[in-house]
Amino acid sequence: MSEQSKDDGQRRADERRESPRVPMRIRVRRENSSQAFDSREGNISLGGFAWFGTSLSVGMKVEARFTLPGSTEELQVRGEVLHVAHGSRGSSAHVRFLDLPVELEMLIARYLDDLELAESKRGGGP
User: Fold this and answer.
1) Are the C-beta atoms of residues 55 and 26 closer than 8 Å to each other?
2) With 125 labelled, which of 33, 38, 106, 113 sits at a CA distance of 20 to 30 A?
């Protein structure tokens, strides 16, 4: 792997970590399933989402739906389970977005930016 590729990969990982995780109710199911979506507490970030409760295996593809506060449009996304954790709240699945259309990425980014700005104003930040 070239030094540039390592730097680019590290920068992308750092960018994902810097994105805030925002609590969100998420409806999720296995990709291409005919079963109903299972509504779970979770969170979203710019790179993906997570939910608590029944988790799926690493590598599994999922479909999810959620509505950003202040919007009536339900967003539909695809993702891949990267990590499954077991903690005080039970199991959680951590998912990265797959094939996220630019328009949806921009909606999510704008929402997260607006929350961060509102939080900094409340907290007396810069």
Assistant:
1) no
2) 106
Q: CB of 35 within 8 A of CB of 71? A: no
pTM: 0.77
Q: Quick one: CA dihedral 25, 75, 98, 27, positive or negative? A: positive
pLDDT tens track of the chain, all 126 residues? 444 444 444 444 444 456 788 999 999 999 999 999 999 999 999 999 999 987 788 999 999 999 998 889 999 999 999 999 888 778 899 999 999 999 999 999 999 998 888 878 887 555
Environment class of 64 (CB within 10 Å of its CB; exposed 0-12, middle 13-18, buried 19+): buried
Q: Could you give the CA distance from residue 30 to residue 86 in angstroms, rounded to a whole number? A: 20
Distance CA 12, CA 19 (A): 11
- CB distance 102 to 89 below 8 Å: no
- Which among 20, 34, 89 is positioned nearest to 63, based on CA atoms? 34
